[in-house]
What we know:
The structure is a homotrimer.
Chain A: H1 7-21, H2 29-40, E1 42-45, E2 47-50, H3 53-77, E3 82-86, E4 88-96, E5 99-101, E6 109-111, H4 113-116, E7 117-118, E8 125-144, E9 171-178, E10 184-192, E11 213-222, E12 227-230, H5 238-243, E13 256-258, H6 259-265, H7 270-276, E14 278-285, E15 288-289, E16 300-305, E17 320-328, E18 334-351, E19 353-357, H8 359-373, H9 376-386, H10 391-398, E20 399-401, H11 412-419
Parallel strand pairs in A: 14-18, 15-19
Antiparallel strand pairs in A: 3-19, 4-11, 5-6, 7-8, 8-10, 8-18, 9-10, 11-12, 11-13, 14-16, 17-18
Amino acid sequence: MNLNKDGFVKSSLFLISSLVRGVAMSKSAGCCKRFLHYAFDYETPKTLVIPSLGVGFVFRFTQFLVVMYVVGYVCVVQKAYQDTDTVISTVTTKVKGFAFTNTSDTEPRFWDVADYIIPPQGDHSFFVLTNMVVTPKQVQSRCPELPSPSTICVDDCNCVEGHSDPRGNGIQTGLCENYSTTARTCEVLSWCPLEIDTKLPEHALLAAAENFTVLIKNSITYPKFNFHRRNILPHVNSSYLKRCEFSRLTDPHCPIFRLKHIVSEAGEDFQDMAVKGGILGILIDWSCDLDWWAGECLPKYSFRRLDNKHPVNNVAPGYNFRFAKYYKTADGEETRTLIKAYGIRFDVIVFGTAGRFSIVPTIVNLGAALSFLSLVPVVADWFLVTCSRKRDLYSRHKTTHLIEDADSASVSMGTTYGTQ
Amino acid sequence: MNLNKDGFVKSSLFLISSLVRGVAMSKSAGCCKRFLHYAFDYETPKTLVIPSLGVGFVFRFTQFLVVMYVVGYVCVVQKAYQDTDTVISTVTTKVKGFAFTNTSDTEPRFWDVADYIIPPQGDHSFFVLTNMVVTPKQVQSRCPELPSPSTICVDDCNCVEGHSDPRGNGIQTGLCENYSTTARTCEVLSWCPLEIDTKLPEHALLAAAENFTVLIKNSITYPKFNFHRRNILPHVNSSYLKRCEFSRLTDPHCPIFRLKHIVSEAGEDFQDMAVKGGILGILIDWSCDLDWWAGECLPKYSFRRLDNKHPVNNVAPGYNFRFAKYYKTADGEETRTLIKAYGIRFDVIVFGTAGRFSIVPTIVNLGAALSFLSLVPVVADWFLVTCSRKRDLYSRHKTTHLIEDADSASVSMGTTYGTQ
Amino acid sequence: MNLNKDGFVKSSLFLISSLVRGVAMSKSAGCCKRFLHYAFDYETPKTLVIPSLGVGFVFRFTQFLVVMYVVGYVCVVQKAYQDTDTVISTVTTKVKGFAFTNTSDTEPRFWDVADYIIPPQGDHSFFVLTNMVVTPKQVQSRCPELPSPSTICVDDCNCVEGHSDPRGNGIQTGLCENYSTTARTCEVLSWCPLEIDTKLPEHALLAAAENFTVLIKNSITYPKFNFHRRNILPHVNSSYLKRCEFSRLTDPHCPIFRLKHIVSEAGEDFQDMAVKGGILGILIDWSCDLDWWAGECLPKYSFRRLDNKHPVNNVAPGYNFRFAKYYKTADGEETRTLIKAYGIRFDVIVFGTAGRFSIVPTIVNLGAALSFLSLVPVVADWFLVTCSRKRDLYSRHKTTHLIEDADSASVSMGTTYGTQ
């Protein structure tokens, strides 16, 4: 077989030269004829047809296997004929619900969205406050440290002025003060009174948060295919959206989720998670095959806890952060309420890859498959000359051995024939 | 054609054995010779050259088509010879502008960036407040619900203590109170007075926001190619940046955008959108061909509204969220100003794929194309034996039929020759 | 060589027909025999074996080169046999540390996490306040503009009521007031007193921020391979995490970073960067080869400044934004403290591609490589008929020229034989 890569160049040159020279061709007929022969003589392999069912079957069966692989695996399973694009998405979230807390530690309080959603914007990541340690009325002043091996002191000599322990709560003033009737600790300059975050409520303060609902609006784009879509599907109407709630079985396309349902689908218990906080992923999979009717491109929701719950090496388990509300007293002094907020951060993670038929991957994959077809004759030839019954006969007619040593250039085939 | 995959192994073995055995070769000359023949005899197909212009033209033309496809489509259009990488980007945004509001409902107020940009950090997503419902001086207390079919009551029997309607505004106390002179509703425990969000101004409060400008600073990286770039191009100088404003025609590389211009390029009316809010995507496309002079890698800006405006199933149209500013009165009571903020969230979405010549995709795609070249002789052979004028002649000389039945192993070619 | 793509169809048809017709085959034996011949006759190229060491060596060496390329470059270097997936990740950050400021301009103040981290949530992007311009006790009122060529006035005629200069600070009231004893400027309606942001401290206020530490918790997923991992590695225990600090040499897997270390690894000076602010990328590379023991999939940290430091065209250098804390005075008037915050925004950027053996890319790449193997005989044939010593002999036996003109259909080979 002749894979002349320079065929294109050759024939182009020929076409150009033909046009240019035109009738002048007859003059340089000899030269031209040679060129024509060079460019257009077709060299084809001589072949031997072997009417053997066995070899033929091996050949066809190997071909069949390759074609089955191409059709079955590459095309159907892997969709290797498609060009792919990655999703670009926008998410809006809106939480609804309120709660009332009335525990022994805190005064009765009503909570609405503006109180427990941080940040308020309703981005792809929102935090629902479920538990907290509140330290109200902090002012910039001095107070004794919380007792710990490194802060307990006997007299002022144990405290170094200006020293700041990274695990402490402020800058030491060099004095040793009474923390309680039993303990004396170094005095620090800090926001006082200090936060005592060991007194975290064992039952989540906003246990009612499990009944809050969240509406997730998600618009996606596959820019390469100019394909746009929302998770609120076209056939869904307003009245349905007012009362529906996501359920994998009955309402798989309702974009309103009950927080408790999200957490339990992720295999966690809401009340358990609410105490120390955590991060929960709401995964929206937009993987689509755009070759079929586009209406079939639907979001698939799944839920997974993203932080580790009870690993051996659990530093700072759960999810919490500190923030403060700043006030000014009548006399202009700044005071703040420090809140160590525990809660569940919901991360809406949108991912997906869309595929649509494209000629380049098709060609590449078909090309690769054709390469395997070109292996088929190798297999069949090997079978022919090694395993088939009449292998000597086939081999003798297929292959000619050139005997170089004899300068008379006789070929083995000829010789063989002669002796028969 | 012989596609011996084991050629490598064979020749390696041979080289090793040659080195090891060295002069000892002469001793085991016979064995060695057989090995040499096995490893280095070259088996080449016998070919027949057919001096037919027709067949030659079919062959060359088919070759030409395949080469044209490879050069034209795969290389030029699809750039299949490139390795690709996805963009990693950082965005900073800074809005400038101020406004003055003076409507009948609210007292005169001056607004600057710290007032209307939420969150203030200037991330890839920023929100410009354009309209709002303000409920000042809310305190934790009791007040009658807003009138609705489920909250209107005649006497206390209609209200259940502790009941909380998800569509209501608080937890019922079990009392029925006068909401107005005409309506009695159940009293709830909540932040009072309740927000009445139906009184949304019909004209956006901060209509002047359309003249605000935003400076977008965007740095991108293609980590695979170690390629870094900013959207503030090297040839742009400071004085230009101080006065320029993005315009597709006159200033396509100015990174300062007027909000009104962004919205109108997205096909929307700013004043219309400002009333109920919405989400607007500022898409920056960094798709680049890094094989050419890298300076040609420029950001392409486009603008698109990301939420749906007037669909049939429009729940919670526009974009809004609630947040509160917390205050403390002189006697320590917490009070808040609840703001239902309507406005436009601008999402800066950076995407792009860069391509640069790489040997692997080139090899893969050339390989696939070569496979198609190997189909060319199949086409030409088919034309040769079925369509060409002298097909019998060609076929007779190209193909030899082995007649197995005759055990004397005569071949048809031989026979043919004999009869001629 | 025969690359019959229709082999599959043919053989399928044949199998079906065989089943259907069964014993009826003997009836239509003649037709069937023809069909069998058509489907199962095996056509194989006739070959000539040339016992030439030179040609054989060229053939084997070319084969060797192709195989080396496939094994060495495609498989080992580029891992083209792998299917790839892009990382999905969640990040939590928690900064620790406090500072005490006592400069001539401001009163002494203690700073903790709730004061200097904005936003407080500890997302993948967090901002550490290092410097600021504070404008306390702003109220909605009137005050003279800051002096600049466009605001300086002589009398009221220079000021236009209602005019708002985009580079100014408010809406002009039309009056000309004394700004200082030497300058008169137009009065504006704004938050007064106006911010004077030229008085930025030359040494960063929170210089101590360089010793703050940040714990970065990062969970990643490769959805295609169902592979989950954290940057806190399984073999790391709690006590180690309490005292460790990231260091490329001694503690490369400790997820706690000292801010100064991050900045210096990015090639910057913390104190320098802290004055005007900037953006620093903490890049976590999760590129993994999942074919090997998964434990080897480790995060690689690197640090890079993402904004440009000293470019020629530096508009708004560094990183800053304005935010306000709102207070209410005892008589209900709203007042705010405006803070122009300078600082370092740390963006945790997680990227990576995982590869795992997959049959489709393997097949595609092997296919492409096989295509190159099919080029080997072309090279060897070219060497055979142009460069080898006995090229005439080889050429004569390999190639048969069909002499069409002689209608007697004698072939050149025959002729050649005859003359020998």
